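Lab notebook, bench 4. The sequencing result for the construct came back, and we need a structural model before the next group meeting so we can plan mutations. Quick request posted to the team channel:

Model the 3D structure of this chain.
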Amino acid sequence: MWQTIGASMSRYRSYPRIVRRDRGEGLHRRHASADPQALAVAIVRGGFEYQGQKCSAASRVYVPTSLWAETRDRAVAMMREIGVGDVTDFRNFMGAVIDERAFTKISGYQTEAKKSATVIQGGGSRGEVGYFIEPTLVQTTDPGARLMCEEIFGPVVTAYVYPDARWTEILGVIDRTSPYALTGAVFARERSAVDEAASALRHAAGNFYINDKPTGAVVGQQPFGGGRASGTNDKAGSKLNLTRW
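Done. Here's the predicted structure in token form:
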């Protein structure tokens, strides 16, 4: 878009402005003081609502060792209760992904997870009648793994478990891992940890949530926008949009 506009400058009567909202990836990071139940709910709702097919959906999570077992078990228990199928049956929480192309892409990430990481829950897909992907939780030992860096746009969440003492170090890893910077969330009951994360990850998320899933902002009601490869961070949809235009 910028290239096209720049090449056409001689035809404009004034300097054009654009608001760009591109691809995204939601991230969670947890401090050792976080509430495991809140973390588990955020993984499930943030990652699997709308089949994970929204730009702000949780895709990668960073959990301290001391909280991982309880968080994992609580998340898995909720995932096992999720119905996947025809959305006219209100017992189903998840429906089909949007089309065959999305189905092929997302199931490809599931296949890679089975080869290079550990599938904690889910991992299945069926495309005979509709394109259905099971909610999938993956654990990786590589913070630079492809599943941690790319936008999957589907119900696949990958977790990296880090030693509690490496909190500050892991903030740097998070900041460097993905080219996207749309949404993010930090979970901690210690205010100092929240402040540290907010400062270290200032440019890693356009919309930043504290002790909540990285989804849910209503465009037109709350500011929404991302930086880096996720857009120009203009917060389109809010009153800030008026000043931009």
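The mean pLDDT is 88.
Will bring this to the meeting.
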